[in-house]
Amino acid sequence: MRNGIIYDARRIQAFEGLLALGEYAEKEKAWTQKLWEGFLQDGALMKEWMYYLDHHTFLDEDRCRGYGLTDLYVWQMDRYNLIREIGKNPTACNKETMVLNAFYTMLEMKKDPDTYVKRLTEGRGMDQLL
Prior knowledge:
Structural class: mainly alpha
Strand content: under 5%
Helix content: 55-70%
Shape: globular
Number of strands: 0
Largest sheet: none
Radius of gyration: 16 Å
C-alpha cells in the first residue's frame, strides 16, 4: 500500500466483465451500473459474480430463502420459454442475458424476499418444466 491507495485489480476485472456482458446482452448502462453497485454492497454476490466470470457457471453458495442463482437462472429460462424450443432466440433470452437477470433478481430478492418467493412459486412451480 502506498499513499493510502488500495488497488484491487480483481474488482476492476469484475467490473470490466460486467460491462462487456451488459453490452453483449444489450442492457442499458444504468441497469448495469445498478447491478455493479449491488455487487459492491453485497460481498457474497460479488464472490458469486467473480466465480461466474472465472468458470462460466454459478458457485451457488449465496442464497435467499433457499433459492440460489441456479434456481433464478432456471426461472429465467422458463419465463422466456426456452424450454419449449420455440425457435426464437432474441437477445432477451440468450444465456448471458439470463445470467445477468439471475444476478439482478437475486439482488432485488434480497431486498424484498416475500415478493420474489411469490413470483417464483406461482404457476407451474420451480420443479416442473412442462
